[in-house]
């Protein structure tokens, strides 16, 4: 198994675990408060991971350019928007289905990567992506059928709009991350990816933390009071971001995001056993269809 595949699957696991913990934090914090903890508490863990890798490998890279910092800032702000949209999508249909809507990110990332990065996917991978889209649409239709009017109505549901918007933001984030990694001089893509994580998360802490201080000052103290739970979110967020960034450094964005859709399996498990949500048969069927598409994507790329 290629290293980037194992790292991507690990990233999906960490991301699902972190998102589930954030869903629990919604009972203690506002939307922005629950979102900012992943960056605020993630930076120290990211620094530890970066420092540990640097001490172990002894690699180095050149001085970052202004364009590198711009790309990190763009990645940071689009990820913030994506996270808020994802959390907002949970309410109408629950954690599992809200996340499934965001999985259109794989398609959006593939199209954006083709346009902006010139990445090319084999035909079988595109077939796999199409099957994954069908699985997502099946989830969004909630058993109402596959007629065009039903599809259009389902796409206009709040959960669908928030989830698809989150997918677009995450797709654009991935593109910026990959380009930022290429802006750093050096031969160790992992070290450059870890440095990009720390820079991006630091910027995100300043951006969303500043917004929270300005618009919801009472939430600032609530964020610090929840440090026991929030620290867990930060640790998982840092670990997941490091894996995602490394994956983007080692493989095309379209493939990484497509394989990352295995997150839906972890999502179903967390939804059922961690959050106690009841799953319907059609939700499981749609999720498995998404995963079948991922298998084809991977088969086409190997």
Automatic annotation (TrEMBL):
Is Transmembrane among the key words of this record?
yes
Q: Boundaries of each EamA domain copy?
A: 159-298
Q: Which domain of life is it from?
A: Bacteria
Q: Where do the TM regions start and end? A: 38-56, 68-91, 111-139, 151-173, 233-252, 284-301
Q: What InterPro entries is this protein classified in? A: EamA_dom, EmrE-like
Signal peptide feature range: none
User: Which keywords accompany this UniProt record?
Assistant: Membrane, Transmembrane, Transmembrane helix
- Pfam families in the record: EamA
Q: Could you identify this protein by its name?
A: EamA family transporter
**Organism ancestry:** Bacteria, Pseudomonadati, Pseudomonadota, Alphaproteobacteria, Acetobacterales
């Amino acid at each position: 198994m290629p290293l980037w595949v194992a790292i991507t699957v690990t990233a999906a696991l960490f991301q699902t675990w972190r998102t589930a913990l954030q869903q629990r934090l919604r009972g203690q914090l506002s939307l922005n408060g629950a979102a900012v903890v992943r960056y605020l508490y993630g930076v120290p863990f990211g620094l530890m991971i970066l420092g540990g890798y640097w001490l172990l490998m002894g690699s180095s890279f050149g001085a970052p350019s202004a364009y590198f910092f711009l790309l990190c800032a763009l990645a940071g702000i689009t990820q913030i928007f994506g996270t808020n949209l994802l959390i907002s999508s949970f309410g109408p249909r629950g954690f599992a289905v809200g996340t499934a809507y965001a999985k259109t990110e794989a398609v959006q990332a593939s199209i954006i990567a083709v346009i902006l990065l010139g990445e090319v996917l084999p035909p079988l991978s595109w077939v796999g992506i199409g099957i994954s889209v069908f699985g997502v649409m099946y989830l969004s239709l909630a058993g109402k059928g596959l007629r065009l009017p039903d599809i259009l109505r389902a796409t206009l549901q709040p959960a669908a709009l928030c989830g698809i918007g989150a997918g677009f933001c995450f797709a654009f984030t991935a593109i910026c991350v990959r380009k930022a990694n290429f802006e750093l001089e050096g031969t160790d893509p992992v070290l450059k990816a870890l440095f990009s994580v720390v820079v991006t998360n630091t910027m995100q802490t300043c951006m969303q933390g500043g917004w929270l201080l300005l618009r919801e000052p009472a939430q600032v103290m609530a964020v610090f009071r929840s440090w026991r739970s929030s620290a867990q979110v930060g640790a998982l967020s840092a670990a997941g971001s490091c894996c995602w960034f490394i994956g983007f450094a080692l493989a095309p964005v379209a493939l990484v995001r497509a394989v990352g859709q295995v997150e839906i399996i972890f999502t179903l498990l967390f939804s059922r056993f961690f959050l106690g949500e009841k799953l319907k048969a059609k939700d499981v069927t749609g999720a498995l269809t998404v995963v079948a598409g991922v298998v084809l994507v991977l088969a086409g790329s190997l």
